[in-house]
Amino acid sequence: MNKMKTTDWAKYSGLGIQMVASVLICLYIGKWLGVKLGSENLGALFGTLFGLFASIYNLSKQIKN
């Protein structure tokens, strides 16, 4: 019984770091695309929003499994 509880918290312990990493990577890509297209702030905004939605989707998918 204790082994199940240990694996439960270990399974979800890296999700916060994974969410932050995906948002930061998407922010960087958005800024880079924004510079190439002429609007760095707009690219950063869309990159951040995409990273946020992608990480929330991944979180909900991980929790369901």
Question: What's the helix and strand layout?
Answer:
Layout: H1 2-12, H2 15-37, H3 40-64
Using brief descriptors, characterize the structure shown:
about 60 residues; mainly alpha; 3 helices; elongated
Bulk shape:
elongated
| Amino-to-carboxy terminus distance | 19 Å
Number of strands: 0
**Structural class based on helices, strands and sheet pairing:** mainly alpha
Describe this structure in words.
There is one protein chain. Helix 2 (about 15-35) packs antiparallel against helix 3. The protein starts with a helix and ends with a helix. The longest helix is centred in the last third of the chain and has 25 residues, at about 40-65. The protein is elongated and about 50 Å long. By secondary structure, it is mainly α. It contains three helices and no strands.
Brief sketch in words of this structure:
With 65 residues, the chain is mainly α.
